Amino acid sequence: MRGVVQGILLFLIPFALYFGWLFLMRRVGPDGGEGRPAIAWRDAPWLVLTLAGVAVLAIGLLWFAEQRSLQPGERYVPARLEDGRITEGGRAN
Questions:
Q1: Which of 36, 57, 68, 70 is 20 to 30 A from 6 (CA-CA)?
Q2: Using an 8 Å Cβ cutoff, are 6 and 59 in contact?
């Protein structure tokens, strides 16, 4: 479940940044004066935002996988049940 939520959040980062920037620019205006009050959702560059979201998602997932990977020669100990409690698995010390 955590991986799914993490992937969705990574995918949504470019959309949030774009619409945040769009909201601020429409509010203030590009010349510093009064901006337009409404955001034109149909004018958004959906393809570019989607491709950027997929790129951020892929980079984030690759980074996450690399951080969690074991080095050559390291041993993994799986999660186990000890005294009725689940002990987390991971790298062997």
A1: 70
A2: no
pTM: 0.52
pLDDT at 86: 92
Cβ of 29: how many Cβ atoms within 10 Å? Answer: 12
Question: Angle formed by the axes of helices 2-28 and 46-68, to 10°?
Answer: 140
Question: Is 50 strand, coil or helix?
Answer: helix
Token reading at 44:
């958004």
Tokens 């990574």 identify what position?
A: 10
Lookup: tokens for 21:
């920037």
pLDDT at 25 over 90: no
Cα dihedral 60, 20, 2, 47, rounded to 10, equals -60
